[in-house]
Amino acid sequence: MCFKWVAAEGELRVDPATRAVDASSARRKISDYDRNTIEAARVAAGSIGSELVGLTFGGPDARTGIKDALARGVDRAVHVVADEGARADGHVTAHVLAAQVRRLEDVDLVLCTEGASDTYAHETGPRLGELLGWPVVTNVRELTVEGRTLRAVRVLGADLETVECDLPALVTVVPEVAPAPIPGLRSVLGAAKKPSEQVPVADLGLPAGAVTARTTVTSFLGYVAARRRVVLADGAAQDKVDALVAGLAQDGVLR
Amino acid sequence: MWYLNEEREAILRTVREFVATEVAPQAMEIDASNKFPLALFKRAGELGLLGVSVPEEFGGLGGDQTTQALVYEEIAKSLPALTVAMGAHSLLAGGLLEMLGTVEQKKQYLVPAASGEIIMACGSTEAVGGANQVEFQTRAVLDGDEWVIDGGKVLICNIGVADLYVVLAVTADHVDPVTKAGISAFIVPAGTPGLGIGQHEHKLGWHGSATGSLSFTSCRVPKENLLGPLGGCLQAMFVSATAEFLSCGPVSLGIAEGAYEMALAYSLEREQQGQSMFDRFQVTRHKLARMWGEIESLRALVYTTYAERDRGELCLAKGRLLKVKGAEISEYVGREAIQLFGGVGTVVGTGVERFWRDAKVMAIGGASVEALQDVIASLIKRKLV
């Protein structure tokens, strides 16, 4: 399964004047949705007696995420390290993850989350599946593996669709796939004894085109609530209520 | 922070997740209802938070005291009463069992206690003498193969929810005022005939900690329920009490941080005439700066003391100092936080005032800071810091 080490959204600071986002003091964490994916992958691997490998691509600080993933049930972990890893776009991330998946032996199933909690771009999973040449099943909320067959229940708005495909396959899951349990301290301490590996991205032997981002973030601004500072001070209570309702309707808040 | 390492950071991640997803959403409700947070206590056990420093052979993680302190600090930022229940369970009752118990007793009680399968309480304080053991009235007399306990305890945490009580009782004609010899510890399982459980007191703070009285009326326990040497448990009690006083440091730190974070956020968000209180009023900025400074000074004292404890020092005086300074600073920060909230801060149920209420009880619960200053004075006179 693939996971991402991200800044905690709640700890990002936005300068109200410039809207510049400061993530320097924000703690890092495994993307919230990826925690659910780890649990779904742990259950799936356990049901067929397979090893669960956690895979991440990111800067050196993602090493901490490796320990966290191991505590949450991953059997072993691989961290593909690149200083620019955290700024890679979907194109680069998918090529790096595909190269590393190929280096692992006998991979039957790769789970990704629909999107990471920082970018939520929805593209890494499908891109990775395409590069591996495997069937891709998206928006999955239930999955089972029987023999060499994957059966998955997909969420289509209010409807559910069940699909099957042969393994190996790539699945992207929605958070409802499994609640993420909090790892107990015994698991946290046990994580240090589990195997993990750091792989420099250069060791993957990818061509320059594969590790060159095709999109560039030109601006990243925070959301700042704009206050109108309208005070309805005149008139009786009913007049104030009427004025409030009219104002909200004019702004489209009330219809 | 200098006292954090990779392992402690990893443990903190689990604790923060537990607090954010399970403790914080219930904290206000528990404060309002004064109901013991049984489900949270059990969850703390499942996650390993009750056995951090319990030896691995008895079901714990075998961790150090500093790690235990980090757990308490983090939980106290949201629900201090839960740490009070954890301390009574793990440090007071658990500490006595660990120091005085036989291997069989430790296996029987410490192992399920570390996982939260059973809850423990410690019955020490009495109505007449308070925490002064020389004046204890509760007595235990050997009758055949049973100890018969008569007397009562007050202000005991975890009453009614505990599965067993570690109870101190006089077993000699009198208690030696110097050596305190003559007091013994007993394991009294809940449901033992003659053991009476009082009502939960509605205290100023620590709501939900299940505090109240115990009564013993011809309460018979098997002879083998004696814990440690006959008449000689006070040394262990002194050490386990030190562990509890030490824990008041990180708990107070967490209380102060909880209040400070609320006050800082409110000062930055609350606007008057187009400016936040923080930007508009110098007095607001100065109050917050001083609150932060006091918190950081307490943090330094807490974790340097815990580092000494982990190096094997008893920290008899410093342990008590943590309770004294912790109570002072958390009460100060809690009071100033209410002041910064203004009228809103005085409304019970808005959240910030409960930190001050919890801090106020820190200055008294377990032992008053005045009584502790006296003990500290006697310890520093003998260079037993």
The assigned structural class of chain A equals: alpha/beta
Biggest sheet of chain A: strands, sense, closure? 5 strands, mixed
In round numbers, the mean pLDDT of chain A is 92
Which sequence of SSEs, written as H and E, runs from N to C of chain A? EEEEHEHEHEHEEEEHEH
User: Helical region count of chain B?
Assistant: 11
> What's the number of helices of chain A?
6
Fourth-tier CATH superfamily name of the largest domain in chain A:
HUPs
The greatest interface here is: A-B, 16 and 20 residues
Rounded to an integer in angstroms, the radius of gyration calculated over CA atoms of chain A is 22 Å
CATH topology name of the largest domain in chain A, in short, is Rossmann fold
Order of helices and strands of chain B: HHHHHEEEEEEEEHEEHHHHH
Strand order of the largest sheet of chain A: 7-11-8-9-10
Q: Give the CA-CA distance, first to last residue of chain B.
A: 25 Å
Percent range for helical residues of chain A? 25-40%
User: How does the overall form of chain B come out from the CA principal axes?
Assistant: globular
What portion of residues of chain B belong to β-strands? 5-15%
Quaternary structure state of the chains depicted: heterodimer
User: Unreliable segments of chain B (pLDDT under 50, ≥5 consecutive)?
Assistant: none
Rg calculated over all Cα atoms of chain B: 21 Å
Give the percentage of residues in beta strands of chain A. Answer: 25-35%
Strand order of the largest sheet of chain B: 1-4-5-8
